[in-house]
Design a protein that fits this description.
It contains twelve helices and six strands. By secondary structure, the chain is an alpha/beta fold. Strands 1-2-3-4-6-5 form a six-stranded mixed β-sheet. The longest helix is centred in the last third of the chain and has 23 residues.
Length: about 325
């Protein structure tokens, strides 16, 4: 089975690319009871740099609602409400005839709903919300709000929401298996082969347990390719490249102590540790053949650091 680490599609979107699975997913998340026969679904392709460089996001209309759903794979980005705001404005522009906007008669538009499904490595509450208003400098007499529902779909969190959808539960279990196998085999399997080996093993296990069996039988090779680019690289850093990460951390502490002589021990150590962590992450991202522009964007999202400073590590 050959692999392509620059694969652009997503296992998540592949699973939820049809009407039946979308309805099941939406019912699980929102507690609704839409049925397949009487519900109209219109899938809208998300092609926007505001989100990911991969097609792992869903946008669809259901019952006069425009649902934007992001399958998030790293850390929670607190700027998601702002990014959703910018996106939904563009989406409405596509839906509407520009001339109609200037007519006096009220235009009816689908109600937007914003959802993030979190499956990152760090602990996170099962259900939470992000608010656009948290970003406002002045919070008095607010005239604009946007709320994002965040659902933790990590299998080990035993969230009742994912158990309401057989497909979502199976997907969460599959991702859980891949991560567990990486932890278990990281010292016995060649690092360059580890991720592919663990994905194939997880697929085999799911088929044997009758978990998304038909999907994996039909799309096994494609799933391996997909996960090379969509799999949580931050997880890979923690469970696959732990040794390199610790080396960077030690280096950062050492440099931080040296800096601390002149600028304060606490600040120096903190800066040094961050430097070591950033350097370790960049090395891992480069091993995945991630383009420099994408690496810069990823590091800027996670740390308060300028693009010029990041380029020094590349």
């Amino acid at each position: 089975m050959s692999t392509n680490r620059n694969y652009k599609d997503s296992v998540f979107v592949k699973l939820f690319s049809n009407k039946k699975e979308i309805i099941e997913l939406y019912n699980a998340i929102k507690g609704t009871n839409y049925n397949l026969e009487n519900t109209e679904i219109n899938i809208i392709t998300l092609e926007d740099v505001l989100f990911m460089d991969r097609n792992n996001d869903l946008c669809f209309t259901i019952d006069d609602k425009l649902v934007v759903l992001i399958e998030h794979q790293s850390s929670i980005n607190e700027n998601m409400p702002l990014r959703f705001l910018l996106y939904i404005a563009r989406e409405y522009e596509k839906i509407l005839d520009n001339e109609n906007v200037y007519k006096s008669k009220l235009i009816k538009i689908p109600k937007p709903e914003f959802i993030v499904l979190y499956n990152g490595h760090s602990k996170y509450e099962n259900i939470s919300k992000l608010y656009l208003s948290d970003a406002f400098k002045d919070k008095i007499n607010l005239n604009l709000e946007l709320i994002v529902d965040v659902i933790n779909i990590n299998y080990e969190e035993h969230n009742s929401i994912i158990e309401k959808s057989t497909t979502l539960n199976g997907y969460s279990y599959f991702i859980y298996l891949v991560r567990e196998y990486i932890k278990n085999y990281k010292k016995t399997i060649e690092q360059s082969n580890l991720l592919e080996y663990c994905i194939k093993l997880a697929i085999k296990q799911c088929i044997e347990k009758n978990i998304l069996k038909d999907f994996f039988k039909q799309n096994g090779s494609e799933v391996v390719n997909m996960l090379y680019t969509e799999f949580n690289l931050e997880d890979a850093k923690l469970v696959w490249k732990q040794e390199a990460f610790e080396d960077g951390l030690k280096q950062g502490i050492s440099e931080g102590i040296s800096q601390g002589i002149s600028q304060g021990i606490s600040q120096g150590i903190s800066q040094g540790i961050q430097k070591g962590i950033i350097q370790g992450k960049i090395e891992t991202l480069k091993e995945f053949n991630i383009p420099d522009d994408n690496i810069i964007e990823k590091i800027k999202q996670d740390y308060d650091i300028s693009e010029e400073e990041i380029k020094k590590y590349l």
